[in-house]
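Hey,
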Amino acid sequence: MLRVVMMLAALGVGAALAQQGGQSLETVTQAQEDPSILPAGEGQEETFYACTACHSTAIIRRSHFNREQWDRLMDWMTEVHGMSPLEGEERTLIVNYLTQHFGPRPAARGRNPFLN
């Protein structure tokens, strides 16, 4: 649990999550989930089980990183938070899945962010 709290705090989302629903951080991070909460596709289950060993999918679902950023994040979680290293085909499968379904969002065209 300490690893989850440290990771959420490092990413700046722990307090925001807890405040949004008036729930404790522990309640928010331990919600019941199954692989179907993630988009269907090759690597869905592997990604779900590798990631939810330490945190909920909420942090994944709102992240939008490119391939290099997802790959570096795997190293960071291993080095800083003690995640079991993902290597070889498993790592490639998970990084490919995350990039495909949670890659960078396209830039909004023709939209003035100062008017919305």
